[in-house]
Design brief:
about 80 residues, alpha+beta, Ubiquitin-like (UB roll), four-stranded antiparallel sheet, 1 helix, 4 strands, about 40% strand, flat, binds zinc ion
């Protein structure tokens, strides 16, 4: 089963991704999320039940047991 990307001529492939999910101005990351990903531009699409579950997970974020940290750069930072 294949779908065309809405944004380019790529094809949406099903896979499991590390999803970046924005919920009430907070970003959470969720591992192993079944998603459709464009093989060209990387656009991600979740089926409706998957999206619902991401929302549910975000609403229960106090039950999340692991966290990751990542560097936060400033665009104008000094590089010398
Ligand atoms: Zn695309």
């Amino acid at each position: 089963m294949e779908d065309k990307c809405e944004f380019c001529i790529g094809v949406m492939k099903q896979g499991r991704i590390l999803a970046r999910f924005r919920f009430r101005n907070e970003i959470i990351y969720i591992e192993n999320v079944p998603a459709w990903v464009c093989n060209r531009c990387g656009e991600q699409y979740f089926d409706a039940p998957i999206y619902k579950r991401l929302e549910l997970i975000a609403q229960h974020r106090e039950m999340i047991q692991r966290s990751i940290s990542f560097p936060l750069a400033e665009f104008d930072m000094a590089l010398a």
